[in-house]
Request: fold
Amino acid sequence: MNIPCILIPALVGLICGILGYLLGKMNSKSDNSLATSLQEDLDACKANTKNLNARIAQLEADLAAKAKIAATPQSFAASAPLIIFDGALAATVFGKKIKENDLKIVEGIGPKIEALYHEAGITTWHELSHTSTEKSQSILDAGGENYSIHNPSTWAKQALLAYQGKWQELKDWQENLLGGKE
Reply:
């Protein structure tokens, strides 16, 4: 039996067409998964960029706040250099962990007096170091008779030593104080 000559090229063409169609479908599926993967990577990069921009904004705000504090007038020093808190050194001297700007490090200030200062807008050692004895006494007086009996005459200088990181000097001086009084 003789297959007509036209039938062979038609069958070859049909087989090639089917194979081409199947190969094309397979390639389009792998292109879609690659595009999906690239889109996920792009979304992750965008989210990371957003987080980094937020962190940069926070650091810039912190730096501006520290620069503002450093630019305030000084009562104990002509200028205020930006001093970096060294918690490890403070812990070595005091034998316990010290948090930055913890007003309770000042002899005579406990949690309740610290809360009074915070309510008055004094939250850092630097701010406390610039607070006059009269201002401190008025803050205590406003807290009631339980607080007005305290003597804040050394608190500003203690806060300055803490702010400047002079931990050994502060500790030595505090050993001679009684409730913050000389």
Remarks:
- Residues 75-79 have pLDDT under 50 and may be disordered.
- The longest helix spans residues 7-70.
